[in-house]
Amino acid sequence: METKITTYQEQVLSHLIDVSSAAYPVSGANLKKKFNIKSNKTDNGNVRAIIHSLRLKNYPICANSKGYFYAKTDIEVSKFITKMNTRVDAMNEAIKGMTYAYHNIGTPSDVRVEAVKPFVTRAVRGENNTVKIMKFDLGPDGKAIIPAGTILV
To answer: Are 116 and 104 in contact (CB under 8 A)?
Structure first.
């Protein structure tokens, strides 16, 4: 994984560490204005792209309805992961619905529709108290099939 960060990423990260909290997050608009971040997604200058890149580099940047903040506790990270999992679940449901939507519009004979096996992702506690994201298939009742002994975060 690449650990080098861009100037924008460094500026945003430092600012979030210095001034943000769950109670006082920093809005994307504020970050954009403060650091003169352009909206061009191709140059990685989009605020969401910057935040996403930092998360991929394991920086605990969370968000709520008012903005972004640098997480100070594992509880803040866990709550954010749960919120993201809820969004992923909703997206998977939409994908499932759209997959079956082919039947409502008529599928051209040269298009092959493959069934999508629905799944959910969840944060689980691993060895040495680490947290990892795992994918679980859904059973016929729509609930995740989670093996015995798995510790959800």
So the answer is: no
pLDDT in tens, 48-96: 999 999 999 999 999 999 999 999 999 999 999 999 989 988 888 888 8
- 11 & 57 share domain: yes
Separation of CA 13 from chain center: 17
* pTM confidence score: 0.66
Q: Which residues contact 27 (CB under 8 A, 6 or more apart)?
A: 66, 67, 68
Residues 17, 39 share a domain: yes
Query: Does 2 fall in a domain?
Result: no
Structure tokens at 96: 């499932």
**Domain tally, the chain:** 2
What is the domain range of residue 37? 7-70
Task: Tell me whether residue 1 is in a domain.
Answer: no
pLDDT confidence bin for 45, thresholds 50/70/90: low
| Angstrom distance (rounded) from CA 125 to CA 22 | 23
